[in-house]
Amino acid sequence: MKKLSLEELNRLSPEEYRKVSPVPVVVVLDNIRSGLNVGSLFRTADAFRIEKIFCLGITARPPHREILKTALGATDTVPWEGVEDGAGLVASLKADGYAILAVEQAEPSVLLNEFKPDKNRKYAVVLGNEVGGVSDDIIELADTALEIPQFGTKHSLNVAVCGGIVIWHLAGVWLWVEE
After folding, report:
1. DSSP classification of residue 112
2. pTM score, whole prediction
3. Structural domain count of the chain
4. Is residue 165 part of a domain?
5. Is residue 93 part of a domain?
6. 46/35 Cα distance (integer angstroms)
């Protein structure tokens, strides 16, 4: 076994990245406190060619120092927008045909491993504040609450880890799963 060099990875250049079709998933960051988490989510969004990130409320926005530290340049490739009215944005996305997926422990919820993304749909993944979760006004607009099954003593995951798991699960429908 040998590690691949950067050249052997055949990664897209930023120019090539901007020309390929994105995965029809947007990520809505609902009042995320940590710029490091935001940067990690930008990097994940780049890895899976996510369409766009929306930064709501207190969510740090590029070129914030902590975001740049973990994003490693993904803020230059992933489109993003700062938005103050989270419920208004989610209502607008819903009107544009996006299925709203709140990643939250809620009643009722669908376990992520049981959720089968539809290749013919567009999705908006809402990730909530590290302490309070997804805002109540956004939960009310959600089509589905997705929950990641957990089996230890803790009842939550870091928001960047959680986002990575959900985004990977959704993106696979367009990037590597055969029909």
Report:
1. G
2. 0.96
3. 1
4. yes
5. yes
6. 17
